[in-house]
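User: I'm writing a short methods note and want a consistent example. For E3 ubiquitin-protein ligase RNF123, I'll paste the sequence; you return only the structure tokens, no commentary, since I'll be parsing the reply automatically.
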Amino acid sequence: MASKGTGMSFSHKSYRLTSDPEKAKVTGIVEEKLLNDYLHRIFSSPDHASPAATSRKLLNFQNLPEHLDQLLQVDSEDEESQGQDEGRLGPSIVVLDHTGGFEGLLLVDDDLLGVIGHSNFGTIRSTTCVYKGKWVYEVLISSQGLMQIGWCTINCRFNQEEGVGDTHNSYAYDGNRVRKWNVTTTNYGKAWAAGDIVSCLIDLDDGTLSFCLNGVSLGTAFENLSRGLGMAYFPAISLSFKESVAFNFGSRPLRYPFVAGYRPLQDPPRADLVRAQRLLGCFRAVLSMELDPVEGRLVEKENSEWQLQGQPTILLTLAHIFHHFAPLLRMVYLVEAVLMNFLLGVVEAGTPAKAQLVVHQVLDLLWLFMEDYEVQDCLKQLMMSLLRLYRFSPIVPDLGLQIHYLRLTIAILRHQKSRKFLLSNVLFDVLRSVVFFYIKSPLRVEEAGLQELIPTTWWPHRSSREGKESKEVREETAEERLRRRAYERGCQRLKKRIEVVEELQVQILKLLLNNKDDNGGEASRYIFLTKFRKFLQENASGRGNVPMFCPREYMVCFLHRLISALRYYWDEYKASNPRASFSEEAYIPPQVFYNGKVDYFDLQRLGGLLSHLRKTLKDDLASKANILIDPLELQAATMDDLDEDEEPAPAAAQRPMQALPMGGALPLPRPGWLSSPTLGRANRFLSTAAVSLMTPRRPLSAMEKVKVRTLSVEQRTREDIEGSHWNEGLLLGRPPEEPEQPLTENSLLEILDGAIMMYNLSVHQQLGKMVGVSDDVNEYAMALRDTEDKLRRCPKGRKDILAELSKSQKVFSEKLDHLSRRLAWVHATLYSQEKMLDIYWLLRVCLRTIEHGDRTGPLFAFMPEFYLNVAINSYSALKNYFGPVHSMEELPGYEETLTRLAAILAKHFADTRIVGTADIRDSLMQALASYVCYPHSLRAVERIPEEQRIAMVRNLLAPYEQRPWAQTNWILVRLWRGCGFGYRYTRLPHLLKTKPEDANLPSLQKPCPSTLLQQHMADLLRQGPDVAPSFLNSVLNQLNWAFSEFIGMIQEIQQAAERLERNFVDSRQLKVCATCFDLSVSLLRVLEMTITLVPEIFLDWTRPTSEMLLRRLAQLLNQVLNRVTAERNLFDRVVTLRLPGLESVDHYPILVAVTGILVQLLVHGPASGKEKATSVLLADPCFQLRSICYLLGQSEPPAPGTALPAPDRKHFSLQSYTDYVSAEELTQVEQMLAHLTSASAQAAAASLPTSEEDLCPICYAHPISAVFQPCGHKSCKACIDQHLMNNKDCFFCKATIVSVEDWEKSANSSTTSSAA
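Assistant:
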């Protein structure tokens, strides 16, 4: 095997040791005396040997083996100690007992040391027990959930509810609940966190049991343990679903072995350890010594200056060392205890450059003098140990431990051959290598040293998150300003230290993304691409019972480091290729989504399933991209779709009560992201076949088509990705809309695509979760301020109250100190300016990608849904999660980005090409609804081209029955808020009247109406004879449904509340009821907006549908008024109950909406329109003047010419809401009441009695005025016109209505007819 690091190449096969004396003399060996001095310096005698005895004997390569054997002799004490079994029963190699010592379903790693809970509360114990002496083992906590760790006897019986510590003779520590367990439970110890190490100690001489957390004793937990015949204790654990740990019984060096007198359950290989340390000493001596044959002397040098020159003397010396050393370096314990410590010492002692030289030399020598399988085992164990040390090291203020481990990792990965081996076989296949890019968050601020780093704490006094109205607060005092600045300086110190770690992590990824190291094999980047795609597949796949997900906190850190490395290589390529694009202009070309070169697994596309798109859009693929789909591919895809739902359940899932070793009895992919942090995955999760284009061997003419075939991810070559002279690789199938010049290297495009997928999989959820820390700070700060206010107001004589308040003040202050320091850590690792720019960059990449995909016409349907999701969610994260420290408005190109996103939402929320899952359509609708709520984003919508704005409003006015109407209605309402009658409030007025000091009342965003979009709406409603009738018909239908559902629900709620035997109401029912009420109010507001903008739709009866729409509107308004304003009615009783969940249900919201409509019809309209509206309203049989009087708090209309009496305070009145209803608006209501009072009196005097047989048999409110043809049935015109908007069948006989003719009682024939 060749070494490539020193400028020379040697084969270790040339230096195999031989015992043939005739071949002992090798050309190039130095003279005898110098050789003797050199070998004595390298192979110094053991400490107990006599120097005089060794000095009499000249050393050479003939007698060196004998000398080396003597040097490696181990004392008899060390040899005997390895077989010492007193006080212990069971195998000498201690593992978890997966064959019988378990309860529940558990997943056990290949080495039987890592375990994941896969049932309610599974329990497992070890194979070895102890009955005498002092023993210890360690547990590495991978997740911080519910677990009980400790000891049990063989007679303990567990089940899914009772685990270790819940029975006699079992004892446990639970760091999740901070308790100890032995049948009963009491407080004990500290809370643990993921990344902590628990040491479990048992002293069977004294009968005590104790625990340590990260090497710090938690004190004696239990005393007087049962001992004697038949009493032996097994290490054991019970853990809930998805919790995971890894045990160390002694197969690796204990992390905290300093507890005097305690032995690990598994004896360390003491004799081998002594030999390995002596051989390491010899090896280090070689690295610090050089031969000078010319001068005949030895020259001492630093390790970093030593070089392998090809001298036979040194080569043979190293061959003798590795003859003994190589087998030892395959042992886990010795790699960690000997080689790891040596390399860490090198890193800690010198500069990074010098350390790199030494590590490079060491790795060269390992590959030169060890067999391939030996060095591969050694490197695998070395990386496992490094990752374990990095993850489970305590957080110290300068992060020094993590920095050393990362520097060593970088030094190892800089060695090309080692890097390729680790990347191909270890980093993603065996290790959770993403851990290297994670910075563990300290749960315990004190132990992380944050108190020293941030001595002064501070917290913001208000929240700036969107959707929360920020209250006016007092000016910052001088003392608070000093505290804030001191806190910010501490945060800055912390951020700089974290940035050192982040830069090292980015260096690791830069090494893995190197594509210049393809000499002698595949470049690192293409190996990484294959592994990275499988990693994404494991986390994107929701199939199977085994959890495959990488923890979200790891994904966030991995994403940011990946973006940094990706942009570095992207801009580096641009520097050498001027025609390429900068990373600031990055996007994914649309052909990547349909040419099959990149596997998107079973992720949903915008147009539906991939197999469906290939069949339906094959002609478009052929015409626009010159791509033909192989018919066999289509058939195979179809069969896969059919079989998908018929997959048999895994065999293991049918045996729920087993503990299964991974790679053994469980035929499922190993749950790599919830298991122990270090161990292997035996059954690799095979990726689905990726569809790739066949590589063409000659240039394609414009009309030639390329037929596709399938390639697995592993089968792809560099040419399949990057392309060649006649092949565009990932970019094959370029549509005519796309530019010809390359963006960057194709491999970087695929990595960018994977980064966007990562954000969608879990990063966004984690960003939202960690905002909870900031929310906690705000809540505690508010509680502290309230407590301080109470202290100031409390009478001095109430000592008891003052004492309790002072105690509360101290608790809140301490909690805020802790949370503010933790918040500093969260901001530095997740919400810093640099992280914000990363998310912003992803947002802009997605926007450009969507824009380019949109230009391809029908091929846009091939785009995966997650691109739209990431565009929506990343904008939401930037807007809501990074404040108040950083504002999105400070980002470069902020206004342009807002406008581009607005254009995408406006166009695609009703895009017919998007027919995937309902979730993506709902997301687009909700994103647009949120967009029009806030001034900045609403102005962005107004900035998009006029054609797009009009198209958006036209889609919003489409009939509601064709799509999710509730979200559409919210959008229209938000365009109107601030313009309607009494519609300027930001908190519900009726709640502020009852609870004026309650700061937790739900708040609404400040109104920001758009007159521009309102004008577009008015113009569209005036155009075309069908737009307004179809839109208003659907609005009226939905209002009728929503209000009817609301009334039905409050009847059920009232009945449930009055029952003696069941005095509660289902919270879900309350929520649905409140939603129906809110929908009714919003629909009424949309009607108010329509009447205000385009009153002629209802009042211009030259339009064929105006009269019918006005009659329907009057009918619904009267129904709402009657239901809400009746004395002591159902609505009043439910409002009086003040049930939680029904806070929004009250008279004010719905009555002001109805009042706004009536005022527009009866006060603001033209004179002719007022008369029509008045006549229709009064003609409705449900009209009651008392309901109008109710609006002003009166039970009866006032006498003509008299002033309105003062409102009754016990009843509702608009006059009680003068903060929300202006004096002008109140005057208009008074005018409306006076007008209706007068008109009602006149109508009553002029009305004539009507025979019942002449009334419409449908509504019994109006006389018969229409006859249906051909069946001849009759009704009033209003009823039949309304019916024909939704149905063409007769009310009575279900015959199809061909025409409707006017009918008068005195006439025997019709005078006018109209087509149905």
